[in-house]
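Why this split exists: single-chain examples teach little about how molecules sit against one another. For that reason, every record in the complexes split bundles all components of an assembly together and asks for one structure covering all of them. Below is a record exactly as it appears in the raw files.
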Amino acid sequence: MFNEKMHRLGSNRSVIRELFEFGKQLAAKEGADKVYDFSLGNPSVPAPAVVKTSIQKQIDLPNSTALHGYSSAQGDPDVRKAIAAHIKSSFGAEADPDLIYLTVGAAAALCITLKALREEGDNFVCFAPFFPEYTVFTEATGSALRPVPMQKDCQMNLEEAAKVIDKNTKGVIINSPNNPSGAVYSEESIKALCALLSNKSKEYGHPIFLISDEPYREIVYDGIKVPYLMNYYDDVVVCYSYSKSLSLPGERIGYIAIDPKATMAQELYYAVCGAGRVLGYVCAPHLFQRILLDCVDAPADVEAYDKNRKLLYSSLTEIGYDCIKPQGAFYLMVRAPEPDANAFSDRAKNFGLLLVPGDTFGAPGFVRISYCVSYDMIVRSLPAFKALFATYAK
Amino acid sequence: MFNEKMHRLGSNRSVIRELFEFGKQLAAKEGADKVYDFSLGNPSVPAPAVVKTSIQKQIDLPNSTALHGYSSAQGDPDVRKAIAAHIKSSFGAEADPDLIYLTVGAAAALCITLKALREEGDNFVCFAPFFPEYTVFTEATGSALRPVPMQKDCQMNLEEAAKVIDKNTKGVIINSPNNPSGAVYSEESIKALCALLSNKSKEYGHPIFLISDEPYREIVYDGIKVPYLMNYYDDVVVCYSYSKSLSLPGERIGYIAIDPKATMAQELYYAVCGAGRVLGYVCAPHLFQRILLDCVDAPADVEAYDKNRKLLYSSLTEIGYDCIKPQGAFYLMVRAPEPDANAFSDRAKNFGLLLVPGDTFGAPGFVRISYCVSYDMIVRSLPAFKALFATYAK
């Protein structure tokens, strides 16, 4: 009667959403203070003040028809110029405003990019652990996602990547800082990946694109630097979102930036415009385009996340959990004290702890903890983590 | 190298966008006052005052993380409830908040609905004249769009529809008030269409869905009523947008409402959720979801459009043009004084008049005039229309 695949994807909620809904029910029954919800990646830090002043400025302008009217499909030219200038001043890379395409968030940016690139028979490669919707987005184009198995430290496993990439690989998706591990790929490993891709591109006689999903770019700790890929490789497509850096995930504003050095960059841009049209994206929300003129350079507020990170990492390690220390994003991966992370996640529920099992992230045996929550909730959750751990000592 | 179809769709702009870009160049060369741009459907009436006060209210709330955070994929429950209440109070139809899905505008609503419904071999039917992106959206699902040929008065040609609909027809798209004709389908013709669809559904043993693309619902003149489809048929899916009624086209906010009486409505809703996920729509822009709580009942300001309509229709008719009198929306269809509307549109450019040829709308021999422009521009354009018409008398 309906499209069976859409029905399946709509009725089987993602494991994250399932946990989130369970948490709401539990809170209704037991009280909100008995639930420690670490399931969702919804920023807990308010948007920087400049977001509000900029919205205020925009709505006080005399011409509301221009403000709320359509922009061109690619986004307003002055906004694209401001983004290119930000890329130049922050990373020294030469971005071209006419190769930037504003999107309805990073998910749209990825869907559009994959659809623009994909030809019959193509596959896309990513590194485990990875954001599970990559599978949905890649399969939506009619191609397959091939995850490179996880390396113990959650850096990229390049030895395995060399085996997974083949002549039909159109692109490699990387996500650093990473969801779910919080890993930031080192400059050394980025260089090695780019060398691998250059060699493979030569070998197969076609470019392999490096698709950089980087909504967490600014969420980094201990002064660590995230290498800007356009400075290391030519065939780069950046998929960015202001969801996390400006705490605007619900407003759906991001962009695609094609490296001006990319093979046939202008033609790829046309394909991006076509894919945006086919997927029904008329333009990115216009008010939130306009505020970027004031906000592109606003620094992300990472202090609260860092405080959470330190507390959680040190406390859980002290309790006895095996944790992967995050360098960025607001996720912490913890090894389940039993082989099956789903069983561990289920047991954790009994203590009010909502931890996402890592299987769909390509990280079986681990759970993901989103620490974009209140510091207070983390403090209150620690006895529950301790009690949960104790059940494994018996 | 890239997806060839996406490249083609991205490099060949729609005929509307082509004209719009030409107009910008002409204005730069000849002066903006020499260009009469009737190409785009970008509302010229400002958003009602309640939009600004509501945005103000929202950004003044203490909790900006909730305001700008993710909503559930379907949209906030209280917003969906407000929309259902509006449907009930305005049209007397029983909408169910849990069968409403907020979207990034009407284009997204249509793309999602078509993708949710479409099974292998399906086709979709629409009535000429029709919005050309229907072809793009339908083909994106892998199915075909079958337009029913235009009837002289731009009402639905039901005799032809009976021939076009076949056993593989999954849905019929209707758009009333209509873009590009401004026609509002009469209650009589809606009843006849519903009877036809009921019979065909019975004959073929599966429901044929009625997909109502209705962004212009409130833009009607002379007190005319737009029949609400849920009151006439069971298998209805409404695709609505606030783009025109609230003059917010750039903010991308609309919804899908599935008729609670529809066959397996809950299952269809799941398929809608799945299709939204696959197309990369995480949620509708949250700030603009929230303002709907204040704005769902705001009346559209149609006075300015009506003034434009009357001036244009009477003036062009007086000059000698053959016009189809619009009952709604802000478009006027005019018969080209020569068989080829493209040639007419080209000739019109010499007079600074940007008129969209109707071929891609399924209305060859006609041009579309968007009169969501300033009254003053219409007044100034009339001598150009007269001079253009005079060239055909020679």
